[in-house]
TrEMBL record:
Name the UniProt record assigns to this protein: Histidinol-phosphatase
GO cellular component: cytoplasm
Protein's UniProt keywords contain Hydrolase: yes
Pathway(s) annotated for this protein in UniProt: Amino-acid biosynthesis; L-histidine biosynthesis; L-histidine from 5-phospho-alpha-D-ribose 1-diphosphate: step 8/9
Length: 275
């Protein structure tokens, strides 16, 4: 099995067309490829898809399904932003729920846009209190994890995007871990799949996928479900970091990783993943 459900195209902030992504996935022996364009949040994220763009995105994927369906299974998904439009399974085969923005005192700001912007929010909104910022972030994750329509929680610890080498806080600070674990508990309670996501590796911010190893181990201990995704914005990153994901999952005690089929998500043994 080789599958990636978190991918972006020219319809949002990706670099390649749907067809280019499909051809590269076939070339790299993928069994399945899912598209998860950024759902409408146009007020705060100009890269997300407004309704007109979303309808073109859907049609383009339907055409690709017709054209390439005998060579690869293609899935129509969406990445729903915590503060953007909400979607349903009538329209999408799967929905990734993600927090990219924080809201405070009537203001909205992106936590993953750039290091400078991240630092500005941390300073101006939280007086450099990283735990206070993380608390607000994980509260928003919990809200997304409680939504019926969401199947997969996107990059659950995105708040640590710029924290390589413990730049802003200690990844293993018990007070921080408590906040993250609380969000993980909510995700597991609501039967959500938590993704391992290598997106920040491709963009040079991190050397390891989300979630941090401590959190991955916690998800395993609590009986949580995981999938592996690259959140790629470029077809050459379609399977970036997958080997690392498998070995980290194994190291954390997982035996199975979830994949999507036309009948929904199901577990596949780690040794049956061929990345
Ligand atoms: Zn995202
Ligand atoms: Zn994404």
């Amino acid at each position: 099995m080789k599958q990636n459900l978190h991918t972006h195209t020219l319809y949002c902030d990706g670099k390649d067309s749907v067809e280019e992504m499909v051809l590269e996935a076939i070339n790299r022996n993928f069994d399945g490829l899912g598209f998860s364009g950024h759902g409408n949040n146009i007020l705060f994220d100009p890269c997300s898809m407004d309704d007109e763009r979303e309808s073109k995105y859907r049609n383009d994927i339907f055409s690709a399904q017709e054209k390439y369906g005998d060579r690869i299974t293609l899935y129509l998904g969406i990445e729903e932003d915590s503060i953007g439009k909400r979607f349903s399974h009538d329209e999408y085969e799967y929905i990734i729920g993600s927090v990219h923005f924080l809201e405070k005192n009537g203001e909205v700001a992106p936590i993953d846009y750039s290091r400078a912007r991240f630092e500005q929010i941390l300073h101006d909104w939280y007086a450099d209190d990283m735990l206070a910022m993380a608390a607000d972030y994980y509260e928003a994750v919990k809200e997304v994890a409680s939504r019926d329509e969401v199947d997969v929680i996107g990059h659950i610890d995105l708040i640590s995007k710029y924290n390589e080498n413990n730049a802003y806080f200690d990844f293993e600070d018990p007070a921080y871990l408590e906040l993250a674990k609380d969000a993980i508990d909510t995700a597991i309670l609501n039967d959500k799949i938590i993704e391992m996501n290598t997106g920040a590796i491709a963009r040079g911010y991190r050397t390891k996928p989300y979630p941090h190893l401590q959190l991955l181990k916690y998800i395993q201990e609590k009986g949580g479900k995981i999938c592996i995704n690259t959140d790629c914005h470029n077809r050459f990153d379609l399977d970036r970091g997958y080997e690392d994901c498998l070995s980290l999952a194994k190291m954390s005690g997982f035996q199975e990783i979830y994949a999507l089929s036309n009948d929904g998500f199901y577990p596949i043994k780690i040794e049956d993943w061929n990345v």
